[in-house]
């Protein structure tokens, strides 16, 4: 009798603590700010940066038409014509390598409000997404963050705090790149945990759930490393709203021959957009959750012999713009230099040359064909890197004319995924050194489990960090079992 009363009281206390904790996610306390912008350096085009795409809830039949705004180039957010896009990404913010929370520097304090003020009142409206990472980030920081449940929770909590404080509609991870299978396993755990906490935060605060997206390598297997690790396609399909394969930067101006850095097709290699997109579909990511990347910049070379000037021609180094020109600069270069412009049907890309200068790039025609390719594969849409590089919105307009049929609608996906989400634990929280688990269930309830009632929960929990996805799945299964008071398959999510 006495024992029962004590237990009830404890559960009540824990519930109060948990409720407070959940609520504390929403009124975000500003972090301390520092004076140095942590954003990447290079003004002008940032070809190596890879942003992710965005969905378009305002006009689902149009699909996701997204673009990244590089906050560090000086291109004003107020110049963005929102009529071409459904989602605009703020690029970038980084996690602190020491605390794993997002580091909102004084640069961000200035730039994020500029971005939000410029876009929030726009008609047509666009969704805004906070992108975390970018090519300038140290990938090992992400590797550390995802390596255990607590650091993941700290990071996730911080992303929600910053996104809510400034009024973003979603968060985007741009980790370039996970380097091995362990990173990939942990990335899967991050996505699962992130989505679960986003669902919970939405229920607890009664606000629209934040979107969860991720910019990823052009293919589902990262060929940059040996052995090449594979992204967790199944988990991405279940927990991420969409991914944005960065289908560009296939070649560099340091190569001793010219190339199309974002070729749709390449008969001689697998480094092409069509191959990359197909690999993502084969990895079980539903096509409507794939948002194909397209560059608004080209790569340049200096030809060895001006008379040998096709794709693959011998080159002796970078060309104009130190290897990179954005589309508006390319149009200008071609006109000023009376360049010869060739459309290459095989690669679906253009190139131009004048004297010994050579540029490979996407133009209005290739972008239209790529958007049609995305349409033909029922993809969710496309995204551009980056705003400020188009020539009078001509490329943005060409893309917008192509209606995507792989309809992405937050409602559709939620309905389809509802079965999974409702079956899983929305959130779990370990209090008092694993003595108690506090769970918010998928149907909005919060339940507390005393580990004494389920002896092996703490043990299973202890295995998670060490053993990865499989055990995390088991844990969810076990927790569900406890909450419902009946046994369930250990293969709940397999
Ligand atoms: C945040 O970024 C600034 C600028 O790069 C840096 O000086 C500061 O140490 C960072 N803070 C943390 C907590 O990492
Ligand atoms: C989440 O962030 C909020 C706001 O800063 C903070 O009060 C809370 O303690 C954080 N929770 C965790 C688990 O980090
Ligand atoms: C949640 O928000 C909706 C409007 O967005 C409102 O109609 C509803 O009453 C709210 N529910 C709670 C429990 O506050
Ligand atoms: C391209 O990938 C396919 C299957 O992944 C493989 O069979 C083929 O050998 C690859 N081709 C090249 C040129 O690497
Ligand atoms: C421009 O190039 C074309 C051939 O590509 C040539 O016929 C024409 O004379 C050139 N015009 C000028 C002004 O150089």
TrEMBL record:
Region spans: Disordered: 39-58
CDD domains: GH18_plant_chitinase_class_V
GO cellular component, one term: extracellular region
Keywords: Glycoprotein, Glycosidase, Hydrolase, Signal
Keyword Zinc-finger: no
Gene Ontology BP annotations: carbohydrate metabolic process; chitin catabolic process
Hydrolase recorded as keyword: yes
Residue ranges the record marks as coiled coil: none
InterPro entries hit by this protein: Chitinase_II/V-like_cat, Chitinase_insertion_sf, GH, Glyco_hydro18_cat, Glyco_hydro_18_chit_AS, Glycosyl_Hydrlase_18
GO molecular function: chitin binding; chitinase activity
SMART domains in the cross-refs: Glyco_18
Every GH18 domain range: 63-406
SUPFAM superfamilies for this protein: (Trans)glycosidases (SSF51445), Chitinase insertion domain (SSF54556)
Pro residues biased stretches: 40-58
Signal sequence segment: 1-24
Similarity remark: Belongs to the glycosyl hydrolase 18 family. Chitinase class V subfamily.
Name this polypeptide is given: GH18 domain-containing protein
Lineage: Eukaryota, Viridiplantae, Streptophyta, Embryophyta, Tracheophyta
